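Handout for the seminar on molecular recognition.
Each group receives one record of this type.
Step one: identify the two inputs.
Step two: read the structure output and locate the region that could contact zinc ion.
Step three: write two sentences on what you found, then compare them with the reference statements printed after the record.
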Amino acid sequence: MSIQETELKPVAEIGSGLVRRFDFPDGKTRIFQISTFCPDIIGPGPTNVYLIENEALILVDVGIPTNMAKAFFYQWRNQAIPKEVEDLAPDHSERELIEGMDLIGRSLSDINQLVISHGHPDHFLMAHSILERTSASVSAHILESPQICNPWGILNMWISRQRQMFATGMPAPWSGSQSVREHLYRGLDLDSLGLSIKVDSPIFGDGPLKVGGMEINGVQVRHLPGHSPGSVGLIVGHEGGEKALICGDVLLNPITPHPDDLLVYLQTLEQLAAYEDIQLVLPAHGRKIVDLKARVGALSEHHRNRLRLTYEICSESRSVWDVATTKGYFDTYVNPAKFNFLAGMEALVHMELLSMVDGLERCHTRDGVHYFISCAKDFDEIYGRIRDLVTDNKYSAIMRY
Ligand SMILES: [Zn+2]
């Protein structure tokens, strides 16, 4: 017997609105998937939220309110909003979640626990309004609290990166005549907007999920850092039976997650490769993964290839932005004249890891932009040093709570 999947509502034209049920062979455990609006191409695509139904009703992630998605993904990045997105109601994604729950005979007030996989805007920003209609308590890893619990957490994340972004050589997202504040406040009244929520039961590391102080049988938390410092996954299912991993953005399919620390991310992939008994992986964006080891292998290979390409591009001195905008570095075209945070960060984390093993060194700065050049050794030797760092990792063994 395996986990059975049933589609309850097809995907709408805008790309979200899908509702699916996964029935476990034990007859007691079910997972529901509801996809809520988040832009694709410019963003990661609809956010899949999951409801775990066993001894308790647990909601994993909530998605992003549509008005905030318009601000973060388009206005803050200085991108034109397509008409079909502009036309969406400000609470479109919220309605998708509520209608999805209606369809499965549940309401927000039935939720016992909300688990936030990580503190990125597309995963938790809707929580503020959702929590007004439920008495559910909230869990998230303690390392995500700077984003989740601080009213200015998302702005802090955005603004704290600006200095680093300028050093990469990337153009600013706003015009010279505009203040940062004017730029960020377009479309949103951030002074009166509730962005933060209180985390009632912080997660410190691996172990059973607790709801109201009680350990829930058949839901295990795993700390899977690297996409963000406090990303968590939930393993659903009982010992000896079928198991699913709800993984947030740690593994995605078909897109590849952006690491915020590539070394830590590769260590997490190593940890995931050792999981023996996961039959189904349910990511927060895109499609389900049925072969965990194959997906982990493909993501490791992807980063190896990108490290090699980064290293080769830096055979002559290059800034991070030069690398990110080299033709063929990404599948999609990155316009050198336009701010693109994720493209810049992706090149940056690869260059950081190469620098960590002396594969790259900073050769000069010009107009505040830093330039790097490779050490001209064989790439396989450099990659061997990276693999040594990835596998020489005491963290997983020590960080048991
Ligand atoms: Zn995400």
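Reference statements: The CA atoms of residues 115 and 139 lie 5 Å apart. Residues 292-313 form the longest helix (22 residues).
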